[in-house]
Amino acid sequence: MADPKHLMLLQQGAVTWLKWRSQHPDLHPDLSNADLDGANLRGANLTAANLRRAHLSWTKLIAAHLSFATLNQAMLHKAELIDADLHHAEFIDAHLIGADFSGANLSFANFIGSDLKGANFNNADLTHVNLIGTELRGATFRKADLSNADLRRAALSHANLTEANLAGADLTSATLYEAELAQAHLYRSRLPKANLVQAHLIAAYLVEADLSEANLSRADCSWTNLSKANLAGADLTRANLRGANLVGANLTRANLSRACLRGALLDRTNLREATLSDVELGEVDLSRANLQGALMPRGDVHP
């Protein structure tokens, strides 16, 4: 339970709270289980505070200082954390549906197991963040920095990651069904066995990305840069790869049946044993691609 003195000081207002914190810089406030729903804590110094299981729904924490704070199992439904400092904060199993983290610093934060459906992370710093197994359906990450983030098994269906930086991020087995990834930066990102069915990757940068055994059926990868990417065993049935850069990419045993490759760059592309039945290959030069054992558009197997 929350320390009654700490809770009373916080409820007395910003001036009293800030003065007390400045006088006790090494003390970690205990606000666990506190009912702070709808409170105005704009700019509050809650660094290293214990907010386990606290009720913070609809609470204003704009520009608040919450670095190294513990918010495990806290309730933050539609809380406002705009421009807040949350680096190294813990949100394990927290409820954050519709929370607004736009512009916040969340580097190295831990959200494992939390519910973030519909949360707003636009322009936020999420470098090295732990989002393993989190619920992020419908969340927005426009221009957010997720470089080196851990998103293994995360649920990102219908999420908006337009122009987000996901360089070096781990999205192994993540679900990105119908996710918006237009112009996203995914250099050397890891997406093996990811579900990208009907995802929008228009003009995304996926150089040297690992998409082995990923499901990209009906995905829009037009004008996407996939040079040197690993797409071995990937499902690209009916995918739109018009104008895509696949130079040096590995598509060994990939299924490209009924995909559109019109105008794609396939120089030194490895299509060994790939399925190319009914593929649209207009304006494509296959002279330097490896087609050994590939099932060609007319049904014949390339020698």
UniProtKB/TrEMBL annotation:
<dbReference type="InterPro" id="IPR051082">
    <property type="entry name" value="Pentapeptide-BTB/POZ_domain"/>
</dbReference>
<dbReference type="Pfam" id="PF00805">
    <property type="entry name" value="Pentapeptide"/>
</dbReference>
<dbReference type="InterPro" id="IPR001646">
    <property type="entry name" value="5peptide_repeat"/>
</dbReference>
<protein>
    <recommendedName>
        <fullName>Pentapeptide repeat-containing protein</fullName>
    </recommendedName>
</protein>
